[in-house]
User: Fold this.
Amino acid sequence: METTQPEPGVPESSVPVEDEVGPPMPTEPPAGPPWTPPEPPPEARRPMMVVAQFFLVPFLLAAIGTGIVLGVRLLTSDSTDAFGLIRQIRITQGTARWQNAFALYDKLTGDPAARKDPRLVAELIGAYKGIDGKTDEDFQTRVFLLSLLGLLRDPRGLEVIQPAMDDPNGVVAVTAIQAAGTIGDASVADDLLRLAKSEDAGIRKTAVFSLGLLNPRRAAADGLPPTAPDKTREIQEALRTVHRGDPIDDVRWNAALALTRFGDPEAAPTIRLLLDRTHLNEVETRNRLAMPEEQKSEVLINAMMGARELNDPSFRPLVERLAGHDPSSDVRRAAGEWLELVQR
Assistant:
């Protein structure tokens, strides 16, 4: 499986996803900002992800949708309910199927009430199983459906999510891996541990992010069955191994952020580096490819989230510097909010 794409810090291509608007979706993950699912679990209200290209499927779908959404809405009435769109996905092919899948994604991400229907999971699973082609449109449709199953956070969705974690299509695989983490069921731990050792940096990166979502605090907050203590220790040790030795910068960064979810102080030195824009500029220079300012800001903001998880007062001066001097208004605002929270 090949999913390696331009990475923040370790890029291999200079085409960011923000510049790619309109179908067809590439068959491998491009670069771009991370996925921020609507109404994620309390601990993941804004997923802690430094990565650009492998946690972006909803953002990618939104970006592509900017170019096609008017056309899709002309083909699919706003009054079409979710089950009507699922029926269309089952009976259409090619571009029409993909457009119906986008319309379904658009409808459900924008309508929390519609997502509460208990029939949805089974219907999405059935629609997913009905896609047996290997065209770009088929892959795109699978990505939309997997994203929605992750968004619904119902363990029944793992029936199709878990096999898709090993899909030969890179976008499908990374979407499934993140959806598994978003659901947060401990049954995916062994698969994620295996994928954290993948030869593919994108798969490793996604897997360590999702392993971070299997932490005890998130399970308690969401009322999920907790991961067994022995398995939790195994997850932490795996994350430490990646953090200490992975050759790819942003795989290590994501491992550090995942460790902060467990309150593991081993992540602290890396988080300090990620709170320093100068360090990010050095990474950019070392790898001879521009890291977009938006991505640098995402790194800094996610690093602040990780710092808060560790509850270490030594981070405060670094955040104060960002609040007062960072060129990004988003970073300054996030830093100000961080400082207000730690003062309470």
